């Protein structure tokens, strides 16, 4: 049987805990303080979960940064015709999205 619980806003199964890799390392006092604050705030229950959460947050940040860079490169390389099509699509989408709430802000 597999049990699930939420850790830092994500679902983690007990079977995931059984397949964890044991590591030994040193970290800076600042990094340790950050991980300990995650535990104190109740976002996670232990140091291993704090490290997982911190890495998950870093990966999300890196993915957003990569998407931002790829999007900028895409628009920088458009032909004038493609740029005009994008502007027309932007106008149409903006008009249809009136009243939609931005969930990221």
Give structural notes.
61% of the residues lie in helices and 8% in strands. The protein has 105 residues and is mostly helical. The protein has a domain at 28-93. Strands 1-2 form a two-stranded antiparallel sheet. The model has no long low-confidence stretch (mean pLDDT 86).
The whole-number mean of residue pLDDT values reads 86
Overall helicity = 55-70%
Q: What share of residues are in beta strands?
A: 5-15%
The tally of strands reads 2
End-to-end Cα distance, whole Å, is 39 Å
Main sheet: which strands, in order across? 1-2
Oligomer: single chain
Structural class: mainly alpha
Low-confidence region ranges: none
Global geometry: elongated
Number of separate helices = 4
Described by strand count, sense and barrel closure, the largest sheet is: 2 strands, antiparallel
Listing every helix as H and every strand as E from the N terminus to the C terminus, the arrangement reads: EEHHHH
Radius of gyration: 21 Å
Q: What's the topology here?
A:
Blueprint: E1 4-7, E2 10-13, H1 14-18, H2 29-40, H3 47-76, H4 80-96
Antiparallel strand pairs: 1-2
